[in-house]
Structures are given as C-alpha cells and as structure tokens.
Design goal:
Blueprint lengths: L9 H7 L14 H11 L5 E4 L13 H6 L8 E4 L10 E2 L2 E2 L8 H5 L3 E3 L2 E3 L17 H4 L4 H16 L11
The structure holds iron/sulfur cluster (SF4) (2 copies).
One iron/sulfur cluster binds next to helix 1.
C-alpha cells in the first residue's frame, strides 16, 4: 500500500489521483468575492449567471437565506465562476488553484464543510477521498482546515450573502 507523508495536505494526494473538486462544479460567488478576485487577477471575465444544472438545487428550504439572497428573484440564476469547455474552473492551473487562499471564493474555502445559515455540519461532504486520510486524522485535519477558520469564513460568507440585495451586477434577465 502507498504511504504518504503525514504533513502532505490531502488535496495534493487527491490531485495525484487525477481528482479535484475544481472541475465540473458550479461555484457561487458573492459580489465581494468578485471584487477580491478581480483586484488580484486583473480579470473581469470570470463570472456568469446560470440556473443550476440540477433543478433540485433551487429548492433550499433548509436555508431560506440562501434561497432568498443567492438566487436572482425571477430567474433562479446565481452568479458562478466560469468554467472552461472541459469543465475545469477558470482559475484551475496545472498545480491547483491559481488564487491565494485569501482571494478564493468563500464557497471554495469552506469545502468540504456543508452548511446553512444556521451553522456548519461537523461531517465533511463525502467528496474527499477518505482512503487517503492518514491514520489518526480526520478529513479536516488532513486538509489543514480548522473549525475556527471555517466558522470565520462561514460568518463572512453569510454576511456577504445578506448584502446581495445591495450588490451591483444583477443581470438583466
Ligand atoms: S477538497 Fe477534497 S475533493 Fe477537493 S481536492 Fe481536496 S481532497 Fe480532493
Ligand atoms: S477558484 Fe480555485 S478552489 Fe475554487 S473551484 Fe476554482 S480552482 Fe478550485
């Protein structure tokens, strides 16, 4: 069986298997995410407004804040990161994300936590390959993601979501 250095972050092992959660995903961006990314990248071509690929995603009864503020009120569209034709995120480079952590969309920073406005679920989403987590560690430890950091990002995410009503950039639908 292959062994891994314990200090190696889980995403590096995941990438070695050719897996990444930066492909074929719809990543919601707050208006403030857009400002941070544009300032860093000097790009303005990385957003689009789309209805969810999975129509069931529009129904967010467990998170009324998300349902009310993230989706455009009339078209069920929301602001997401553009993807390349092969499904890769527009900021996915050969060695992973091209954006520093402090600039990445808050949704990306919080992955693989699942959450609603009410709080974080202590169980990670099943996407991360558990078989690659070193013995004695949990998924979050293997990702070097602390609960305190995640709670701060979660708070910031919902503060920014609640400002969506004031945000510039609602599309003409
Ligand atoms: S967050 Fe999880 S699924 Fe995404 S690259 Fe890292 S280990 Fe893989
Ligand atoms: S912004 Fe970075 S972390 Fe988020 S999906 Fe794109 S490449 Fe992945």
């Amino acid at each position: 069986m292959e062994t891994f250095p314990v200090e190696e972050i889980l995403c590096v092992r995941c990438a070695r298997l050719g897996k990444t959660c930066c492909q074929n995903r719809e990543i919601y961006l707050t208006s403030a995410d857009v400002g941070r990314i544009a300032a860093f990248s000097q790009r303005h071509d990385f957003t689009e407004w789309r209805v969810p690929d999975d129509p069931a995603y529009v129904e967010q009864s467990d998170d009324p804040v998300w349902e009310q503020y993230v989706f455009h009120h009339e078209g069920h569209k929301r602001r997401i990161l553009r993807r390349s034709p092969n499904g890769d995120c527009t900021f996915l480079g050969p060695a992973g994300c091209l954006l520093p952590e402090a600039v990445r969309p808050l949704v990306c920073r919080l992955h693989p936590f699942t959450y609603t406005a009410a709080g974080l679920d202590p169980e990670p989403s099943p996407d991360c390959p558990r078989q690659l987590v070193p013995d004695g560690m949990n998924v979050f430890e293997a990702l070097q993601l602390t609960i305190d950091q995640a709670l701060a990002w979660h708070r910031q995410l919902y503060e920014e979501i609640l400002r969506e009503d004031d945000a510039d950039g609602w599309p003409d639908l």
